[in-house]
From TrEMBL:
It comes from Neobacillus rhizosphaerae. Belongs to the prephenate/arogenate dehydrogenase family. Residues 3-292 form the Prephenate/arogenate dehydrogenase domain. Keywords: Amino-acid biosynthesis, Aromatic amino acid biosynthesis, NAD, Oxidoreductase, Tyrosine biosynthesis. PROSITE patterns: ACT, PDH_ADH. The lineage of its organism: Bacteria, Bacillati, Bacillota, Bacilli, Bacillales. It catalyses: prephenate + NAD(+) = 3-(4-hydroxyphenyl)pyruvate + CO2 + NADH. It comes from the Bacteria. Pathway: Amino-acid biosynthesis; L-tyrosine biosynthesis; (4-hydroxyphenyl)pyruvate from prephenate (NAD(+) route): step 1/1. This is Prephenate dehydrogenase.
Length: 368
């Protein structure tokens, strides 16, 4: 497709969407604006955008698509500003915010002027921020939630999906309220829990300096998302406070239940608690990258000797298989280690399995 796409907020999500659009629609001109001039400059330098707009007024001129990819509170303000500007009457305005109800509510003025707004939320991301973390495969196989209001022309929704085709995401249309309830459960609430575990650990570390050094695989897996942008999460919590307060009440009840099981030393019930959690977690779809991310991880049992990582990455390099991450899961000296290698696609993971079994006798599996 041809046209001008204006991206406001050139961070992880805005940058990644710009890359996806350019990949699919080579003739489109991507214009970008960020309040942080350094991000705009970097976006241009990295080839994420074609042109820098000095401000929003300049960027909207002749835009066919406007994507707002700023924190959700900023998004509300930007929407108010857009309603005062002379937009192309055919433009589609969308956003990427992690909450939807308050954002959609703030589009009344745009609606008044007959401008199409379709709320959007690509359900994939990272704890990293900024345009330097942007990548065009970020949304592959992820759900991309759209929340058009009833009056929106279906053709405009299809047009937006066409613009976003390069994400290779799966579009799903839901209401803003349902969106906030569902993402509250699977995304926003887990971020509160991750941050709370880290904060509790920090407090306890003051009296026991060994704690941070012992915080290994399990702690890291559970708390990765606590490294996300505080600015972004502050806004998300405030936007979705009703849902999150209710979830916190339920969680407190849940924790009181666990405490009672422990006080009563109820072994069968404790087993059952973990077993039910395991059954549900193991049954989650792993090929989809949704709110529950599917990592294309490969687990390799390796002996603990110096050089084993470079040996394995050497095999993969020989077959030109790219990896996105590599880490050791088990570091005890007296037993084998487990190397976890992450790939961008399922196909790369399969190729890697074949490659490692061809060149070595290390056993591999797709779960630890
Ligand atoms: N990070 C994720 O995992 C993720 C996933 C899906 C959706 N989202 C949502 O997408 C949006 C962007 O998140 P991100 O991860 O890209 O954040 P980010 O911090 O990487 O990027 C946000 C960018 O917006 C810019 N910005 C802030 N206020 C602005 C304004 N008024 N005008 C122009 N630019 C402004 C910032 O300078 C920053 O460069 C947020 O609403 C977030 O809730 C995030
Ligand atoms: O993978 C991560 O780091 C994320 O936190 C991504 C995540 C999520 O909770 O799944 C975070 C917020 C977004 O709105 C969507 C995706």
């Amino acid at each position: 497709m041809k046209g001008r796409v204006f991206v406001i907020g050139l961070g992880l999500i805005g940058g990644s969407l710009a890359l996806c659009i350019k990949k699919e629609h080579e003739d489109a001109i991507i214009v970008g604006f960020d309040i942080n001039k350094e991000q705009s400059r970097l976006a241009k330098m990295l080839g994420v955008i074609d042109e820098i707009a000095e401000n929003i007024d300049e960027g909207v001129i002749d835009a066919n698509l406007i994507i707002i990819a700023a924190p959700v509170n900023e998004t509300k303000e930007i929407l108010q500003l857009l309603a005062k500007l002379p937009l192309n009457p055919e433009v589609i305005v969308t956003d990427t915010g992690s909450t939807k109800s308050r954002i959609v509510e703030s589009t009344a003025s745009l609606k008044h002027w007959g401008i199409t707004f379709i709320g959007g939320h690509p359900m994939a991301g990272s704890h990293k921020s900024g345009v330097s973390a942007a990548k065009e495969i970020l949304f592959e196989n992820a759900f991309y939630l759209l929340t058009p209001e009833d009056h929106i022309d279906k053709k405009k929704v299809e047009l937006l999906k066409d613009w976003l085709r390069g994400t290779n995401a799966k579009f799903l249309t839901i209401t803003p309220g349902n969106h906030d309830y569902l993402t509250g459960i699977v995304s926003h609430f887990p971020h509160i829990i991750a941050a709370s575990i880290v904060r509790q650990t920090e407090k306890l570390s003051e009296a026991e300096s060994l704690i941070p050094r012992l915080a290994a695989g399990g702690f890291r897996d559970l708390t990765r998302i606590a490294s996300s942008s505080p600015e972004m999460w502050k806004d998300i919590l405030l936007h979705n406070r009703e849902v999150l307060i209710e979830l916190l009440n339920q969680w407190q009840e849940e924790m009181n239940g666990v405490k009672t099981l422990l006080e009563k030393e109820n072994s069968a019930a404790i087993f059952n608690y973990f077993n039910q959690a395991k059954q549900f977690r193991d049954g989650l779809p792993m090929k989809e990258k949704g709110a529950i991310p599917a990592f294309y991880d490969l687990y390799v049992d390796v002996p603990d000797y110096p050089g084993v990582i470079s040996e394995i990455t050497g095999y993969l390099a020989k077959e030109k298989i790219s990896i996105t991450n590599i880490r050791i899961l088990e570091t005890r000296e007296d037993i084998n280690g487990v190397l976890v290698i992450s790939f961008q696609t399922e196909e790369d993971r399969h190729k890697a399995e074949r490659c490692i079994s061809t060149y070595s006798s290390y056993s591999t599996s797709i779960s630890s």
